TrEMBL record, chain B:
The chain crosses the membrane at residues 20-42, 54-74. The keyword Transmembrane helix applies. InterPro entries: Na_symporter_ssu. It comes from Spiribacter pallidus. Residues 11-86 form the Sodium symporter small subunit domain. Keywords: Membrane, Transmembrane, Transmembrane helix. It comes from the Bacteria. NCBIfam families: Na_symport_sm. This is DUF4212 domain-containing protein.
């Protein structure tokens, strides 16, 4: 059976599964629509949260990022997992005890302020919409590349399926499809990883394969370090950026992760406070299965790639692979444009090295090399893995289904956060508080349908700045939402004025810092300083600034709240009550 | 009786915060301390080709995060029962 047909069958089977679950899990009340009736088992919620959190970027791009950045990619590994410790310890149990439906609702109630609730809605929508664009693009690309449809048809297919289960089932439908999507994606990720670990290091467990040897008693990472240095690159296992920037980037990603509303609302769906704590632990277990496999996939597939184009001695003419002898997967990926060869010195052989390194330029000239000839899109590190490991067509098809599951599950979670903020916080909370349960459920479905259409439109016409805005999404969550949520729980004295001042100053500072380097409102050419490390303040990049914004938020909020009247007594009692799982 | 309840709630919260601070110090030391700041030094220890600082940053820290959350879950469940605020 040919690959495209197999891919159609497997992707079609997974889509049929999602639709089946949607019909089974139809939401009948607002409680079911917003928080799945608060009846989700903590382990099941952990699985759903893991799928909600791990996006197309985690599934497709992260291993490639690790491959090309080596140690420096640790910021993503630690940043996107360490945030769950903050979430479990500082937010999840208390917000669950609060027991309502949305994140802005907590902010509005705790700070007895509609404007605070509206600011939270805006921060939530900006952060979530930004994210959705990337997922929609991922769905379109996966379809066009592997199912031989056009990008638009792929996008419409993805929209239709999300529309179906998110609009009918709400959080209930989304939760149970996310569980299925987690199973698809983790199976699709680990099976090729096991085979590539076995092929390269002889150990079937990828995490242990990192310690493996690649023959002649040479260890994998040792060999990778040496070969990269010989090709003019930095060592794989050492730091290339600055310690300070790594520190703040990791912290921004952690705080941002803990402050992302679509993740937080998943903890509203479990029955009890203790389940919220436990569920956070299970979430991280399920995420870690993929996140600890990724470094092994990154190192091994990168080693394999270099070894393929540089099979012999570096510098010797026959040390480089002749283009006529490239393996099948190489030619196939060349057709997609994700792998490119340009024979700059006309010797018919592939040279891959660091032609940016001045120190290495003389050596390269001595070898007769006239520039790097191989360009590699980092996304192929995961997608080409099954082919490189010579696995059957169904595994390749499964990888496509896995990538789609990752994108769909995250998109649905984000759309849920957006639509509940619109229907529950804006429509019921501000515009029409007298709306009936039935009316609100309808409003929630219409908001969800609207959010799917907006996301689809933005996927079809992605704004040129989409990639840069992702840095802002984390910055927003880190500098506005996380600090006020935490202060609302841990600082009883925190009042409305403090929270507003804190959110606005954290948000304002972060946005201005990002705009200075990325252009005002991301309009190209309006940036005031070039976005390069030597122009960053103390070497802290715009991606890393969210943590500084969070600190400013906390400081300003604390000072302002001290200078103004304490919150009313009933609010102080609310804080007391969310701190205890059950009133004794 | 009301004041006794309030005192118990305060004591519960104090113990909770103390536990949080302890766990967050470990969280910080493992990720930022060992995984970033001290990584270049720890990289001098190499096990089967894997430098220790690199391993902590790409694998060890994640395992530590999981352990921290489950320790928290376990300790909080015990604390809830001690102060009789646990859910049935």
């Amino acid at each position: 059976m040919d690959l495209t047909l197999t891919t159609y069958l497997i992707v079609g089977a997974t889509f049929a599964l999602y639709i089946g679950i949607a019909i089974w899990a139809k939401a009948g009340s607002t409680g079911e629509f917003y928080v799945a009736g608060k009846g989700v088992n903590p382990v099941a919620n952990g699985m759903a949260t893991a799928a909600d959190w791990m996006s197309a970027a985690s599934f497709i791009s992260m291993a490639g990022l690790i491959a090309f950045l080596g140690y420096d990619a640790s910021v993503y590994l630690m940043g996107w997992t360490g945030g769950y410790v903050l979430l479990a310890l500082l937010l999840a149990p208390y917000l669950r005890k609060f027991g309502k439906f949305t994140v802005p609702e907590f902010i509005g109630d705790r700070f007895y302020s509609k404007p605070a609730r509206v600011i939270a809605v805006i921060a939530l929508i900006v952060a979530s919409v930004t994210y959705v664009i990337g997922q929609m693009k991922g769905i379109g690309v996966a379809f066009s590349r592997f199912l031989e449809t056009s990008y638009e048809v792929g996008l419409f297919a993805g929209m239709a399926i999300v529309f179906f289960y998110a609009v009918i089932g709400g959080m209930k439908g989304i939760t149970y499809t996310q569980i299925a999507q987690y199973c698809v994606m983790i199976f699709a990720y680990t099976v090729p990883a096991i085979f590539i670990a076995l092929a390269i290091t002889g150990n079937p467990i990828p995490q242990l394969g990192l310690f493996g040897s690649v023959g002649e008693g040479t260890y994998l990472l040792e060999r990778l370090d040496n070969i990269l240095v010989d090709l003019g690159f930095s060592q794989y296992t050492v730091m290339k950026g600055t310690t300070l920037n790594m520190f703040f980037l990791t912290m921004s990603l952690m705080i941002g992760t803990a402050g992302l509303p679509h993740v937080i609302i998943r903890f509203f769906t479990v029955p009890r406070v203790r389940d919220a704590r436990l569920s956070a632990g299970w979430t991280l277990v399920f995420i870690a299965i993929l996140y600890t496999t990724a470094p092994a996939v990154g190192a091994m597939s990168f080693y394999n790639l270099i070894n393929t184009v540089q099979p012999g001695e570096i510098g010797a003419e026959e040390g480089n692979l002749a283009y006529e002898n490239v393996p099948g997967w190489f030619s196939r990926w060349e057709e997609t444009g994700l792998l490119g060869f340009d024979d700059k010195n006309g010797d018919g052989r592939i040279q891959y090295y660091n032609d940016d390194s001045e120190a290495f330029a003389d050596t390269a000239a001595e070898y007769g090399w006239e520039g790097n000839e191989l360009t590699v899109d980092r996304d192929i590190m995961v997608m080409a893995n099954p082919e490189i490991a010579q696995l059957p067509a169904w595994v390749i098809a499964l990888t496509v289904a896995g990538g789609l599951a990752a994108a769909l599950s995250t998109a649905a979670g984000l759309l849920m956060a957006i639509s509940s903020a619109v229907s529950h916080d804006l429509i019921k909370g501000v515009i029409n508080p007298g709306i009936s349960e039935k009316g609100e459920l309808l409003a929630a479905r219409v908001a969800m349908a609207g959010a799917v259409l907006v996301a689809g439109y933005l996927g079809l016409n992605p704004p040129g700045f989409a990639a840069q805005v992702v840095a802002l999404a984390f910055g927003l969550a880190a500098s506005s939402l996380f600090p006020v949520l935490m202060l609302g729980i841990f600082n009883r004295r925190m009042n409305s004025a403090g929270a507003m001042a804190g959110m606005l100053s954290g948000l304002g500072f972060t946005m201005i810092y990002v705009f200075v380097y990325k252009g005002w409102f991301f309009i190209p050419g309006t940036n005031m300083l070039p976005d390069t490390p030597e122009h960053w303040v103390m070497g802290i990049g715009p991606q890393s600034i969210g943590a500084v914004g969070a600190i400013i938020n906390v400081v300003v909020a604390t000072l302002v709240s001290r200078a103004t009247a304490p919150p009313p007594k009933d609010i102080q009692e609310l804080v007391e009550s969310i701190r205890v799982p059950r009133a004794s | 009786m009301a004041s006794g309840k309030q005192e118990a709630a305060m004591a519960y919260w104090k113990e909770n915060v103390r536990l949080l601070i302890t766990l967050l110090i470990i969280w910080f030391v493992v990720s930022y301390g060992l995984g970033i700041i001290l990584a270049p030094v720890l990289n001098n220890i190499v096990i089967s080709g894997v430098p220790l600082g690199f391993w902590i940053a790409q694998q060890g820290a994640i395992y530590a995060f999981i352990a921290l959350i489950f320790v928290y879950v376990f300790k909080m469940n015990a604390l809830d029962r001690k102060y009789d605020v646990h859910e049935e």
